[in-house]
## 1
Amino acid sequence: MTPTDRALGAFYGLALGDALGMPTQSFSRGEILTRFGHITTLENAPADQPIAPGMVAGSITDDTEQAILVGHLLVEGNASIDPNQLARRLITWESGMQAKGSQDLLGPSTKRAIDMILAGHSPEQSGRYGTTNGAAMRITPVGIAIDIAQPERFINTVVQACQVTHNTSLGIASAAAVAAVVSSGINGKKLEHALNAGTEMAFIAEHHGHWVAGGRMGPRIRWARQASSECNPDNLGDLLYDVIGTSVASQESVVTAFALAQRVASAELSSFDALCMAASLGGDTDTIAAILGAMLGACGGLELWPAALIEQIIEVNSLQLEPLVRDLLTLRHT
């Protein structure tokens, strides 16, 4: 399997997880069960979906769109991201979404940061309150473009991608953990090895950004992976939803993605079944499934994902990621 296969697996895995979770995002676990049963394929969003009302099956959301945005910035900046430029692009992106009447806008941490930028604050200050999963959900291009075997370059680029919106120990650690799994996967590492690299990177990256109170990413990921491995299959959903959590907080949604990835590494779940479970959990389902899809796809390649569903996502969203992935991989070797 080539690095291109793995990189496409990561980016299209992100898009697939995002689209699977699109109709269920922000619903409770019980409400999803009542409305959809267990998610097994791409579904239309109901008219009363709070964030994506009436969106057609296969539609992507902000998770994929902002990852593409970051990817283009990396290419334009020759593997460097200008925080001010990222802020401007996010502002433009939200304006376009509002013009279309979409409710899928900037998340709470990113919105607060952009408001601070518009008020004249520096990027270093604007992201000092960002602890949610917004940086982690769009970090996949950094994992594709930057080799974890170059740790200083890797960390610096992750920080650049986080600084304007999530310049905190939690925001940076969560994004770095996800990017480390993706980058390790691109290097051909098995999923278990990649998850170990992501866990270790969370401990390293937490020393960057503004310290904020909260359960640390590294210890929570390590604990959740072990708890997931030991959990009875019948109780796994309860562990993820009730104990780890599925909110927009990094310590919940990102950690839940790692816990589900561990089940795949232990051969307890297939990759696609894990994405479907993430989309069925309740809470921030699209982001959990998107992050999970990126990590699994980087380690397993594009062949992990049902070709018909990938084609549906490409058609619905007029999505062509191959040129961007090619450019990101070129950066990896410069």
## 2
Amino acid sequence: MINLKIKTYENLHETFLVLFFITIAGGFQDAYSYLMRGKVFANAQTGNIVLLFKNIVDLNFKASISYLIPVIAFAFGVYVAVRFEYAIEKKILHWRQYIVAFEIIIMIIVALIPENLNNLANALLSFSCAMQVYSFKKIYGLNFATTMCIGNLRSATENLSKYHITRDREYLEKSKKYYTVILIFGMGAALGYITSDLFGIKSILIAAAFLTISFIILFFEERGK
């Protein structure tokens, strides 16, 4: 039987259950922003930077701005999250819960923003994703990214290679965890694709629901059977 009790927050944010809902929301947001908000990435700032400079070369400055805005918003989101961590003392909520709550509010606002204001919607989403990627960086002590895949793919394959060299199963277990996170991110992207087609710009509320679940989980500690 699973017992839940109020948690003191120590390392609970690194557990798989929290990471699952955070990561699936991350994949969802990238699919949503690309499909519904003008083919701009909420998370994948590398893609935005490539497209930014492509449009600069093409002298398409209007399109350039569409890609520059989320890059700046993402950087600002990381900056704010770091300041938030140092400024907020744990009282009722842990600082990470405030971050998640803020993300949820942002996504509700984005759901109300019309398509002619896509730059604003993308700025808010990128800001939100940046706060998330800073706030949730580990699972069981391993460094992970919940809003992008390149670092996870590198770490997964690095550990797999080390396992084949050393036969140390610890490397294999680490590799499995990284590949699992990539799969979860992909599931979120697939869900974002499916629901964006069904519900349009309001589909971002589904990502908000996933984050709400993670917000609630952070109150509890899961005990063994």
## 3
Amino acid sequence: MSNFMLQTYQAVDLQRLQSQRAGETRLGQALQFVNPDVALPAALAEARARGAKFAILGVPEDVGPRANFGNGGADLGFQAFLGRFLNVQANQFVRASEILLLGEVNLHDVQQKASSLSSSQSDQLEALRASVSTVDERVTSVVKQIFDAGLTPIVIGGGHNNSYPLLKALSLSAGKAADAINLDPHCDFRLKEGRHSGNGFSYAQAEGFLDTYFVMGLHELKNAQSALDQMAAANASFCSYQEVFIRRETTFASGIDKAIEHVGGPSLDKPLGIEVDTDSISGMPVSAMTNCGISVADAEYYVHRLAQLPRARYLHLAEAAPGQHPAGLKAGMSEAGQILTALVLAFVQNH
């Protein structure tokens, strides 16, 4: 089943990415796929009836980061993930039948149209930001159907601009504003100057889709004062990278406690989005790569802790850009895929 908004996957589409070994079953052989012969709402309902709990969705775009004066390459994050995830062992520690590998949002035309645009030209920058709005519409449409089916989306790839359509879809489906906790050196609460990867949360808050917001690991020197002021006005809060890792005023675990408390606690009857900008992780190939970030283990712990909250409704892993790896695309695909897979497994094992 393919439509204008969504390209679904079937097992046969992914065989080229899978390794086989006698006596072993890999996740790619044990996951669920949607029925290609029925409309999406019915296909999602069928998957849920068969025991699916999670729906994995790719967003192959990099117009959001480029519209924010960043580097491209986030369109390959989901493919990097698949190459590693499908080959993980399906064993007693992960319930593969609970995972539906849905497919990817169809953004080929948007990517193609935006490929020749440059953010250094004002008219082209405007066109890039208009393209991000098109991405918003398609992601919102697909993800809302996942929420409406009672499944938990795991959204991988693309820029952090996709926090906005995720929060919009969650809010519309739940009938109330959502909260969000974001692991990110940047608050992504920049001015509403046209859509891009740096203002997903400020747009979501301004339009009533985001209520309470917290940033874990915010870097004190990587955020514009205007964005920090907008956060303060919106009653958002943060625990900074400097507090935890430089000044050692608190621990990473205590910072997560503070985040949960700020958004109202673990069992509040309000949906919560779990956000991870993978540029928070040292050495991760991303649009804005850093060697001054957190470890993969800390990022896994963050996901593990928040996945346990009954109100957690989605996991979003943004900004992986394999081509930005200093050793080239092949190394980037391997490393980004490994880290994205680790974060997804930290979520599904604990939610």
## 4
Amino acid sequence: MRLFGSTIAMKSADDGASSPSDQGSGPRRKIGLALGAGGARGWSHIGVLRELEASGLKPDIIAGASVGSIAGGCWAAGKLDELEDFARSLTKRRVFSLLDVSLSGAGLIAGKRLKSRLDNALGDTRIEDLPVTFAAVATEIGTGHEIWLKQGHLVDAIRASYALPGIFEPLFINGRWLFDGALVNPVPVNACRTLGADFVIAINLIADTRLRPTVIHDNAFVEAVATETGATPRARTGLFRSQFDKSAAGAPGIATAMVDAFNITQDRIARARLAGDPPDATIGARLGRIGFFDFHRADEMIALGREAARKALPEILEEYEMRIG
């Protein structure tokens, strides 16, 4: 399924997966890991990757969107320790200190301080030199094309993949201005399959029960009908009170509105794409109480990621054996 434009893969010189190794009587089938978007919730990817490593279930192919590209790229480059140390060191004050204000008008945050951190960890690593197949998903501004960054500077690809519109400045790569990949493919299962995965495990960070689609009828219409018929309208509570009652809390600020709109959009796109191309297995931690910018809660999120992977592993291994044999 394609949403908001077509899919374009920027190919590397060598499209082969990293290392099919002999297992039993034949080569081991390739495992793909689709690391989803989700802001600060992405620190849970670290816990998932740790648990998969401990079980011996290591991916041959990784596709990541937004924060998923950070975790996936660092793991592929052998730098997950550095990413985990950085994540665990964050406090609210340190998170704020990393946000350098942009004067370009293209985004609120220039991202130079974050780039410096990535450069220190990953250096000049190129995607095509990684020991596993990796792709960072981004979105082209204007066309809405889905871009798979499969070659070039790893840090640039990661930065393009997490460039949240209005927050981070976009990146200009190969003649294209690129934004956050979550706008078109929040959990890139299809990228893993296209890159050669036989069995795809999806890590979905935005499967939040708060965002389950439903239809709520306009309360004003209900009250009008009640007035005309003489019925007593039901008191407005919960969602209606906070959203429609002027005497309740004020309207959300611009940052809250932007993040909530982005979360809702990601959720709807992810549901549609996963329904059209479902993964072979899914790992989903209970992250509903984690805010989009709660980067200072890494300890909690890494633990939740490990717990979710640990619970899912028996079923994943059973499914792998059944499908792959």
